[in-house]
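Appendix C reproduces, verbatim, an entry submitted by the partner laboratory led by Prof. M.T., so that reviewers can inspect both the input and the predicted structure.
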Amino acid sequence: MSALTDYTDTIIFHLAAQAHVGESWERPYETIDTNVVGTLNLLQTVVDLDLDIAKFDTAGTSEEYGNIDGQMEDKHEYADDGRVLLSERSPVNPTSVYATSKLAADFLTMNFHDAYSVPGVTTRMFNNYGPRQNPRYITGTVVTQALERDVVELGNLKPKRDMCYVSDGVRGHMHVALEGNPGEEYVYGYGENISMRDWAELLLEVGSSEGHWDDPEIVQREDRFRPGDSDVEELLVGYEKLNEETGWEPEVDWCEGARRTIEWYANNTEQWYGRVDWR
């Protein structure tokens, strides 16, 4: 039976997920149930109700790329300085339960596009950060510890990530949903990466200059590492496709993004104090 309501101008943004890599190892069944079965439930509902929607935007993750498989080195693109540049054409190699679950959600979205013409698009936004983020992510855990004590305890500080401020991420989703082609993938981020040690030091430097703390010490703890060899060494995005098709590009640089983020955490202690994992 056809839907009774006209949904032709409706866009579904599917961002719901268990989105913490570390927790995906602690709660693997919940992660799969939420991220895979949850996506399937939404897509099947669109089909069952015969909803004629404008777009179904499934949020993926840069973690889906994982580390380079030696057998696939010649399939990758490289920046002028030799770094791997990740785009819609890059091979995927998920190394965590979280990444695997998000890749499955991506494929389900494309399956339903191919089989039932659900106008799905998938996005892989590179490492999001900003105000209101769960304090268990790297940016929040650095900032909240620095606000509360003189030591910032972190896990592996060598991996490099492409850090994308939340408002740029939201604009990316909007551009993909409004201008992207159904059945296609779009990736985006800041377009530069930074080691987790340098990112922590940048946050601490910005916070110090704004008077939020003095000079906290960074301590690396092995018990905060991801299990085994599951950590992703380096992520760097090439967002040319989205830029060429929609004009999207990042607007907030790292220092300004860090300043806005730190200010929010400093002024909203009650919203994160009971949610940190470092006490």
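The mean pLDDT is 95. Additional entries are available on request from the coordinating office.
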